[in-house]
Amino acid sequence: MNAESGSLRVAMLAPVAWPVPPDGYGPWEQVVSNLTDGLVASGHEVTLFAAAGSQTAARLVETVPHAFSLWPDSERNAPRRFDPVSGLLEGPPDFRALEQQHIATCIEAARDGGFDVVHSHLHVHGLVFSRLISCPFVSSLHGAAWVKSSHAVFDRYRDQPFVSLSDAERQLKPDLNYVATVYNGIRLDAFPLCTKKEDYLLFAGRLAPEKGAAEAVQIAKRAGMPLRIAGLIEPQHQAYFDERIKPHLDDRNVTYLGLLSQRDLAPQYQRAAAVLFPISWCEPCSMVGIEAQCSGTPIIGTRYGYLPELIKHGETGFLVDSVDEAAQAVKQLAQIDPSACRANVVARFSASVMAAGYERVYRKLVEQDA
């Protein structure tokens, strides 16, 4: 740490599924981008370890030639075959090995004393390197503890410092060494306030059962309002989409907009009467709810995960326990002031607030390590 300026030397270990920032889907990468640029703006020396093609105000170390989701199809889909000329088995890239290379590049740099702290956003995969360096290695969970099969790794490294994205996230693995809760933060200018709403509801997010897209369809139908759906259909959830959502699509009452970039999703947030969030799992801190409220749009959501920490009932949205309650809440949207929704985000969920929260975490860890 630079004693004169008080600046910190931070190694930011990003996921490599998408570039930083992502053009479309990629919430973890978007958080990393917002945080990294926020820390740089505060005068800290940040080195971002990320996939090639990333853009940042920090020093960038490109650890893999492509983000995994954007890997050239010709290589990704290459058949496994024996090449008699070289004597080698050829085939598609080994993404697990490449991710290990990505992590190791950061750890090797940290091992030489170049950083005050390493901040990992990499599920459990970075944890196994945490004891190989002398500076603190802190992990943001991003919901990773939801996967029970990863708990054995968490158990082995439970003494390492962890940051939860919400207080609710801690219930997924209560026995970890949580040093703080820091909410995800967004760039306020990317989601302008809009006080004039149109007559439609919006669902945005992964189209997975626990996210509640099918329940959003039911809510909209019972409330008698059109619904627009935007989000990623993962291969394992294609059948869910085909069976529970696709039969309702008519481009009038229920419309699927596809997977939208942040730029294209922003106006959908702005004009929506409300965003439906009928989740059934412990959502740690989805960007969707924050981005919507920043746009002045209320949330109608269940009491799972971080939603009770985001939604001020009757002021920035409504917390509900059933599809019927959600449909009734649609009729009460007129009482929500869009400016109150945005004010909630400005005060608690902006990129600058997030960066300040992590700065406090880093300083605490560095002082303890001294």
Topology summary:
Elements: E1 9-13, H1 27-41, E2 45-51, E3 59-64, H2 73-76, E4 81-83, E5 88-90, H3 95-111, E6 117-120, E7 137-140, H4 151-156, E8 161-164, E9 177-181, E10 201-204, H5 213-223, E11 227-230, H6 238-245, E12 254-258, H7 262-271, E13 274-277, H8 287-294, E14 299-301, H9 307-310, E15 317-319, H10 323-330, H11 338-348, H12 351-369
Summarize the structure.
By secondary structure, this protein is of the alpha/beta class. The protein is built from twelve helices and 15 strands.
Describe this structure in words.
It is a single chain. The strands form three sheets. The protein has a seven-stranded parallel β-sheet. A six-stranded parallel β-sheet has the order 12-11-10-13-14-15, sandwiched between helices. A two-stranded antiparallel sheet has the order 4-5. The relative contact order is 0.13. The longest helix is centred in the C-terminal third of the chain and has 19 residues, at 351-369. It folds into two domains: 9-82 and 89-185 and 350-369, Glycogen Phosphorylase B (Rossmann fold, 3-Layer(aba) Sandwich), CATH 3.40.50; 188-348, Glycogen Phosphorylase B (Rossmann fold), CATH 3.40.50. Helices cover 33% and strands 17% of the residues. The protein is globular and about 60 Å long. The protein has helices at residues 27-41, 73-76, 95-111, 151-156, 213-223, 238-245, 262-271, 287-294, 307-310, 323-330, 338-348, 351-369, and strands at residues 9-13, 45-51, 59-64, 81-83, 88-90, 117-120, 137-140, 161-164, 177-181, 201-204, 227-230, 254-258, 274-277, 299-301, 317-319. The chain has 370 residues and is of the alpha/beta class. It has twelve helices and 15 strands.
